[in-house]
């Protein structure tokens, strides 16, 4: 087994960030991150870890954590002294103490707190296996770059290419430099046969400025968040869309989507998002994902959960947040967010209900409602991403009947990504019917609408934010329990769509089109609701910051 020494050079003085190495970074002194990473090597290697410093405060911190200090001579602590003689001095002193000669010398900077233990361990294992003199931690950042020569700005490339087509451009991260002992002297630590160990950009922060400090602290505060969701024809796509909306607001954390192998539509949509994703067939496969990922937070958006699922997740995480969950597992979760349900009796204390907790998409915060029009000229019809009851088809036939009675009205159908009956829903200009498949910005169409016919899911909140009076037809019995879509909030609710006869729908549409005062009152009720704070509330609950 190779004898390894890790030397962590750390001066007390720092001009750009005063007391840099002893300042608290995300809860502990900066110097401890490198010490803890280096100490992790002791499990499988014969390793000594020493800190070379001239600073008494640093010495105290290091010794308090059971680590050894090599006191640095003042001449080696000057500003212009490079690391080569510092590392050589520490190695010589430690070798003299132990009466041995090391095989490998590792330099680890105290200014690389985002380096992961696993990365360092992998690098050392590779170095021992391969025949290199020196291995340097690097990050690959290919960019078009320029330099200055003889007073002229000149390019460092031959041909302008996209970054992914450019040759490798390895930048040293400062996290570690591994070298054979015979390559270490007072002038160098680098041998002839050199390789690089490429690290992720998140592990490559080298703290030199206040901006670096902020970036490193942000990375260290990241949480690993697993989003379990489903997207099927029967269940619709609302769970997938909600989790994606939440994920975009959690950027800056490590995110992993997990869905089941039956969620074909959901899988396709998640692939488009480019978020990391795992597909599982059963609880055993799901447990393997949990075991490997070890999330800080699990988000379940799968409707009702059972106790077994939550107990399984609890083995691998400390926080579980569920959406739209009225199953027995809800009692075991840390938080349950049911924006679509309100005022339920015997509600557990961990449940957050009602429109205050609706996580609205950014586009509805950016768009402003249109001016109210007494004339109803634009009617929008949308029934979600999947529309499992094919209410779109029902309204398509109704609008053909309505056109002769309402010749000046345009009917705009928005069909979702997972809608299976697209071939039967096409533009019919003669009937003033226009179809928009998988619209990327729904708020644009809502802003044009004077009236909408929709299902009883999250779309009702979005319509309310845009002040669009609506007729609601529920997809199923469960959706009919969503209480927000009532007259008190600006909606006429006709119950379950499959059970509502076409004549009732036709008469209701005609009634609202001919009654601008009613639509005006409905609009005012909708716009009295404020959704701006919903995102903030939900994110705080997920991250346990409320």
* Gross geometry: elongated
Mean pLDDT across all residues, rounded? 93
User: Which CATH C-level class of the largest domain is it?
Assistant: Alpha Beta
The oligomeric state of the chains shown is single chain
Secondary-structure content class? alpha/beta
Radius of gyration based on Cα positions: 31 Å
What's the helical proportion of residues? 25-40%
Strand order within the widest beta sheet: 5-4-1-6-10-7-11
| Unreliable parts | none
Strand % is 15-25%
Using DSSP, what is the number of strands? 24
Question: Any idea what the CATH architecture of the largest domain is?
Answer: Alpha-Beta Complex
Major beta sheet summary:
7 strands, mixed
| Count of runs of 4 or more consecutive helical residues | 16
């Amino acid at each position: 087994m190779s004898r390894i020494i890790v030397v962590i050079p750390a001066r007390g003085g720092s001009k750009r960030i005063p007391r840099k190495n002893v300042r608290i970074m995300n809860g502990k002194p900066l110097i401890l991150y490198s010490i803890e990473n280096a100490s992790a090597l002791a499990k499988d290697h014969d390793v000594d870890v020493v800190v070379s410093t001239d600073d008494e405060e640093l010495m105290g911190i290091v010794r308090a954590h059971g680590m050894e200090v090599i006191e640095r001579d003042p001449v080696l602590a000057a500003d212009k002294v490079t690391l080569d003689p510092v590392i050589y001095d520490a190695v010589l002193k430690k070798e003299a103490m132990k009466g041995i000669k090391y095989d490998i010398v590792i330099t680890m900077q105290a200014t690389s707190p985002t380096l992961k233990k696993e990365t360092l361990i992998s690098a050392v294992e590779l170095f021992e296996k391969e025949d290199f003199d020196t291995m340097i931690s690097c990050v690959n950042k290919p960019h078009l770059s320029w330099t200055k020569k003889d007073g002229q700005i000149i390019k460092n490339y031959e041909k302008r290419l996209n970054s992914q087509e450019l040759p490798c451009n390895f930048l040293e991260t400062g996290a570690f430099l591994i070298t054979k002992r015979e390559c270490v002297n007072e002038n160098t630590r680098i041998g002839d046969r050199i390789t690089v160990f490429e690290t992720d950009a998140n592990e490559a922060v080298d703290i030199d400025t206040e901006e670096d400090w902020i970036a490193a602290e942000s990375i260290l505060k990241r949480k690993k968040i697993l989003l379990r969701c489903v997207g099927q024809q029967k269940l619709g796509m609302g769970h997938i869309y909600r989790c994606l909306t939440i994920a975009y607001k959690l950027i800056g954390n490590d995110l992993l989507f997990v869905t089941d192998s039956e969620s074909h539509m959901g899988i396709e949509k998640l692939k488009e998002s480019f978020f990391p994703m795992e597909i599982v067939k059963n609880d055993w496969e799901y447990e393997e994902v949990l075991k490997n990922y070890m999330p800080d937070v699990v988000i379940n958006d799968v409707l009702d959960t059972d106790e077994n699922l939550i107990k399984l997740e609890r083995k691998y995480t400390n926080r579980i947040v569920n959406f739209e969950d009225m199953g027995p597992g809800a009692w075991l979760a840390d938080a349950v967010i049911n924006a679509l349900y309100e005022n339920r009796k015997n509600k557990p204390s961990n449940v957050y209900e009602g429109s205050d907790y609706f996580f609205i998409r950014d586009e509805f915060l950016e768009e402003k409602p249109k001016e109210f029009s007494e004339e109803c000229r634009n009617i929008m019809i949308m029934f979600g991403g999947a529309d499992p009851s094919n209410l779109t088809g029902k309204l398509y036939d109704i609008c053909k009947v309505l056109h002769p009675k309402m010749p000046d009205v345009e009917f705009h159908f928005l069909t979702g990504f997972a809608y299976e009956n697209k071939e039967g829903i096409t533009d019919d200009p003669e009937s003033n019917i226009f179809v928009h498949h998988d619209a990327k910005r729904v708020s644009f169409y809502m802003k044009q609408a004077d009236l909408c016919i929709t299902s009883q899911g999250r779309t009702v909140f979005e319509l309310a934010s845009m002040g669009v009076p609506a007729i609601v037809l529920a997809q199923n019995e469960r959706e009919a329990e969503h209480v927000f879509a009532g007259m008190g909030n600006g909606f006429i609710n006709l119950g379950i769509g499959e059970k509502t006869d076409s004549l009732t729908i036709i008469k209701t549409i005609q009634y609202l089109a001919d009654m601008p005062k009613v639509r005006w009152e409905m609009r005012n009720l909708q716009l009295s609701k404020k959704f701006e704070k919903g995102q903030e509330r939900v994110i705080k609950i997920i991250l346990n910051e409320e």
